[in-house]
Amino acid sequence: MADSKGGAMLLIRYGVNRKQACKNSLSKWRSVHHVYEGCVSGVSSEVEQQEGHWPRAKGVALLSFESMKDAQMWKDCIPEIKQQDWMDGPDMVLVPMRELPPPGKRYVQILELEFSQENYQRYMSEYVPATKDILHKSGASESVVASSAPVNLKGAWNPQSLIINFWSNEEEFHKAYTSEEYKPLKEMRQELALTTSCSFHLEDLFRSKGAC
């Protein structure tokens, strides 16, 4: 399990009816996050689906760590997580980050992609460079996560590839996502990959500047 220079992000996908339980559990073990150089980026339950099939009534918590190893050790040392009935069995996926999530950008887009090797090469050579320009002009912090090697730690969610972008607000995201400039690129991506796209506001769990 190789570490990236940007650290690692742990995604916890849980039933929205368990949001408060998730917040309580993460708050309770806040000190352990710091032991393993961790940070709770935030939680969300109001997820908007743009494409594909995001599971109904599922929210997301994002946790950042300095390494994949730290994230794994955090998960293994929290007693509650080991219990089968913890939050009714959420999904947990670990991915390397290219950079830390920007504290001032709290609107998140998750793209889950599944494609053949041939289509992946075209995606990387044609779609990614063109999309970078649009994201940059739109003010996004693009590809905080851009991983073709997510690691399933718990539950049934086992994505082939994940892209996670951070935006200042919902309006900026939708303006870029629905723009005429992005339309042909979106159509290209949909031809190349089975895609699920969803977005949500990331609630600062601790009501502080950095949420750590």
Widest sheet: strand order? Answer: 2-4-1-5-8
Briefly note the structural class of the backbone. Answer: alpha+beta
Anisotropy-based shape = globular
Q: What is the total domain count? A: 1
What is the CATH top level name? Alpha Beta
Please state the second-level CATH architecture: 2-Layer Sandwich
Question: Helix and strand layout, with pairings?
Answer:
Blueprint (H helix, E strand, L loop, with lengths): L7 E8 L3 H10 L1 H6 L2 E7 L3 E4 L6 E8 L2 H10 L1 H4 L8 E6 L10 E8 L2 H22 L2 E7 L3 E4 L6 E7 L2 H8 L5 H10 L1 E8 L11
Antiparallel strand pairs: 1-4, 1-5, 2-4, 3-10, 5-8, 6-9, 6-10, 7-9
InterPro entries: Dimeric_a/b-barrel (IPR011008), DUF1330 (IPR010753)
Organism: Capitella teleta (Polychaete worm)
Protein name: DUF1330 domain-containing protein
Q: Can you describe what's shown?
A:
The chain is of the alpha+beta class and 212 residues long. The protein has a single domain (8-201), classed as Alpha-Beta Plaits (2-Layer Sandwich). 33% of the residues lie in helices and 32% in strands. The chain contains seven helices and ten strands. The strands form two sheets. A five-stranded antiparallel β-sheet has the order 2-4-1-5-8. The chain is globular and about 45 Å long. The relative contact order is 0.23. Mean pLDDT is 89; it is low at 207-211. This is DUF1330 domain-containing protein.
Can I get a quick summary?
It holds the Pfam family DUF1330. By secondary structure, the protein is an alpha+beta fold. It has seven helices and ten strands.
